Each structure stands twice: as structure tokens, then as C-alpha cells.
């Protein structure tokens, strides 16, 4: 039996939506009211697509990374505030929510043969090789992370593991691509682990030669005495959360405007483990 014109239009208007947290797929004109698998809210759904990440056509100065598994969660609020400041300061940037992209685990080529861990990365089948290019070509990085078990998210840890090929350039006696660039770190979570999470992140960037902006770390937690159900309301309305976040981003911009990378480019002596 052939479909009626109305049923054809109804079918063609359906979109395949993907939950960026657990990968659940849903077909409809609009995403579902929450994910039935992981209970994430509607904001975690995006149209499902298979197009690989490509390098932006226009160069930009700041790479803004939301490293949370929940693109629309508390860390997303922090990233939104960071965007506000970059727009106000007329700074060119690109924002990426890591859970929208495919980043494979590190193959640990270095453990087999040091020379195998080279740039470009040997894994060119996922999206990370494009992030490598953006790290090499931008002037600053701002990383936002949740606190998961007193450290960063697994997604962000995998992302940072995959920068090993850029760090290893120094050991291969090749020119580095990132030393002298600026980093700012934003962390939020339900309870303890803010400064540890920030330092875990910074140690990765320090090994790449990044310079932490003055007062370049902000972390804010809600507290174990509350349930996580009310965290979002707290972070949305907390003025200190907003003030800290805006401060870090502004400090990154000020450092970037000093052209520290250009001044130190030929003077930095790589000391990387």
C-alpha cells in the first residue's frame, strides 16, 4: 500500500536525534523530553550525523572546550559564561562540547617505540587530529571540566591523553607547537575535588609548554549537604560562580594580548617528561 501525501510528509519531517551522553537514538520532529536510557534532559540531544569534524575555515584565537559528558549541564553553564566574556571582548573563538565528537583512546605508541609517537597522530580516523591542529594554531585554550571522583571527566582525560603526540615532539628533538600559549581552567562540581581537578588538567598543559594565566583557575562546588538535583539552580544563580568564571576568561585575554607566545617563542627551553 502506498503512503498518503500526509504520511510521507510526516515521515520526511522526522529527525534522528542522538543523546550525546549515552548515544540513545530517537526519531521525531523534536527530541524526546529526556533520555529514557540515562535520564539526561532534552538539551543533551543533537541531530545525529556522521560528518567528521573539519578544521574551521577562518582562523581564531581561543579554543573553548566543554569537557563534560553533559553538554547542557553545570559545566555547560560555566562554558556559556566564558563565551559571554569572549564575545564582549571581541575575541575570536570556537566552542566545542567534547561529547559531540569522536575521540578514541590513546594507542600509547610511545610505549612500543618512542619514534612512533609523532605528530600528526597515527590515528587519523577520529576527530582528535583536527583538535591537534586547533591547539597548534590558536593562541589560548580555556578548558571547562566537571569534578568526577575528584578529577576530570573521562572524556576530557582521553582528550588530554591524545595530546601526547604533541608533547613528544620535544623528546624527538623537533620544534614544539604549543609552548608559550595561554591556558585558563574552569571547574565546577557537586562537592570536593575542585583544585585537584584543576591541577590534573594544568599538569597536562604545563608539559605542553602552556602558561597559566594569572588567577587562571576558577573552581566552584555546591556541597555534599545538598542533592545533585538542585545543583543546576545553584550554579545558574550563584554570583561568585559567574564572577570567578568571568575573571579567569578576562585574565586569559589580557595575557594573550601581551603576546607572551611571540615574546618567549625562541627563549623557552623545553623541560618535558
Question: What does it look like?
Answer:
By secondary structure, the chain is α/β, with parallel strands linked by helices. The protein folds into 2 domains: 14-47, Rubrerythrin, domain 2; 62-264, Flavodoxin domain (Rossmann fold). The chain has 10 helices and 8 strands. The protein has a 5-stranded parallel β-sheet, with helices on both faces. α2 (74-88) crosses α9 (239-257). The radius of gyration is 20 Å and the shape is globular.
Straight-line distance between termini: 68 Å
Question: How many structural domains can be distinguished in the coordinates?
Answer: 2
What is the CATH C-level name of the largest domain? Alpha Beta
What is the helix content? 25-40%
Structural class: alpha/beta
**In angstroms, what is the radius of gyration?**
20 Å
Compute the number of helices.
10
Q: How many DSSP E strands?
A: 8
Main sheet attributes: strand count, strand direction, barrel closure: 5 strands, parallel
**Strand fraction:** 15-25%
At the third CATH level, what is the topology name of the largest domain?
Answer: Rossmann fold
